[in-house]
Design goal:
It contains 22 helices and no strands. By secondary structure, the chain is mainly α. The N terminus and C terminus are likely disordered.
Length: about 425
């Protein structure tokens, strides 16, 4: 394992500092996922307003496709903002990324519809998604590095708040979606109601910016800040294998988000015929379990090991996901949907809670932010960004409502293989020179 900065150079942060570190590092991630989930939840409305075509299926494909296109800029943002974080500091990069995310959210919240400005509407929506993709490309790596480098002995617990904040974002986004669909008529939602969730998300930005501007840089980075060329060191010289393994590790986590959280309300309404408000409500359950259990699983991984927890979860997911969807298809009720979302929420927390700490230990300090950002961005782009598009397309072409289970199963297998590779590498090498050093 990476030895970190144990010894006289490291002074454990105070409780108040710990709270500020967790909040500042998690708030950008929460805003990112809140905005992404809201966009996905309201994809049918956005499709009608910004991508109006005669065929509703093609219109929805264009909307979820524009969602996926934003992921193409993630790797670019990961390199640029990761490089900036590894040279100028984690705090500096985090400040830039949250400003860009707020800008993208504002653009979507106030964007005139196609009926008002024509072709400029979908183009500007696409531009906003690209800006946000660039911003969040560097967010995960810098935020994770910021947390683990402030507490090298509790990396699992600290870094788990990255995904606990995703759970909080899922609760917030789905709760807002459920309330709007309960209180407003369909015409009101199409006219102006869909903008409210994005406007609410804007309130988070100034708070996150203020907190990040008033935090100290990490001690570990300050000790190692004279290292140069982090992108080359992290990716193109000696870290290619680590990068590929880290991308594989991300697969299951990101697919569980984009298929089992973001896509499920659309799936429940379009394919199972369930009510919109109740479909949003079950995502609250999933997000709540993730929010509550991720820190517990992260802390547990500090005690018994990260790979043990994550590999067990991957195997269980691979074994159960198809039967769960098969049963749900044959029994399309809110009760069974709730059962599937509850179990997937437990799996999500068990896998993703320890994941950021494991990934942070793969890369050395001088290249940690770049390596983390690029690995996570590539993983999310490859396995997550176009997941709703692929599943929607596959169901439309084949009529097979079990398509989501196939996608999740494939991701679980890929991540299991990646975890086995990491585990074997750890056993072959001495602790100070392991793959995670």
């Amino acid at each position: 394992m990476n030895p970190g900065i144990a010894g006289p150079a490291f002074v454990p942060p105070s409780k108040s500092t710990v709270r500020r570190i967790v909040i500042s590092s998690s708030i950008g991630n929460a805003l990112e996922w809140y905005d992404f989930l809201v966009y996905g939840f309201f994809a049918p409305v956005i499709a009608k307003l910004f991508f109006p075509v005669h065929d509703q299926w093609i219109s929805l494909l264009l909307a979820v496709g524009s969602f996926g296109v934003s992921f193409l800029t993630r790797p670019f943002g990961a390199i640029v903002l990761g490089l900036y974080a590894d040279r100028k500091g984690r705090r500096a990069s985090l400040t830039v990324s949250i400003l860009l995310m707020v800008l993208a959210t504002f653009m979507i919240a106030v964007m005139p519809a196609y009926s008002s400005i024509g072709l400029a509407a979908p183009i500007l929506v696409l531009l906003a998604r690209l800006v946000q993709g660039f911003a969040v490309g560097g967010e995960f790596g810098s935020a994770t590095a910021f947390m683990v480098e402030h507490s090298p002995n509790r990396r699992g617990y600290f870094a788990s708040w990255q995904f606990a904040s995703q759970g909080l974002a899922a609760i917030s986004a789905s709760a807002v979606g459920a309330l709007l669909n309960t209180w407003l008529s369909h015409d009101q939602i199409v006219s102006w109601g869909w903008r409210l969730p994005f406007a609410l998300g804007l309130l988070v930005g100034p708070v996150g910016y203020y907190i990040r501007r008033h935090l100290d840089e990490t001690p570990e980075f300050l000790l190692d800040k004279k290292q140069s060329a982090p992108v080359r060191a992290a990716v193109f010289d000696s870290q290619v294998a680590n990068l590929l393994v880290a991308v594989g590790i991300v697969a299951q986590s990101t697919v569980m988000v984009y298929v089992l959280q973001l896509y499920m309300p659309t799936y429940a309404v379009k394919e199972l015929g369930l009510s919109t408000a109740k479909s949003f409500g079950v995502v609250v359950l999933n997000g709540g379990l993730q929010f509550l259990l991720s820190p517990l699983m992260g802390a547990l991984s500090d005690r018994i090991g990260r790979i043990r927890i994550m590999l067990t979860t991957s195997i269980l997911m691979a074994l159960t996901i198809y039967p769960m969807f098969h049963w749900l298809r044959d029994h399309p009720t809110i009760g069974w949907l709730m059962a599937l979302m509850a179990l997937s929420g437990i799996f999500k927390a068990s896998y993703s809670g320890p994941m950021p700490a494991l990934m942070s230990e793969i890369f050395p300090t001088r290249a940690r932010s770049t390596g983390l950002s690029l690995a996570y961005s590539l993983g999310v782009t490859v396995f997550g960004g176009f997941a709703p598009f692929i599943v929607t397309w596959f169901i439309g072409v084949t009529g097979d409502k079990l398509a989501p289970s196939y996608y999740v199963l494939a991701a679980a297998v890929i991540s299991s293989v990646a975890l086995v590779v990491v585990g074997l590498a750890m056993r072959r090498r001495a602790p100070a020179r392991a793959l995670t050093a």
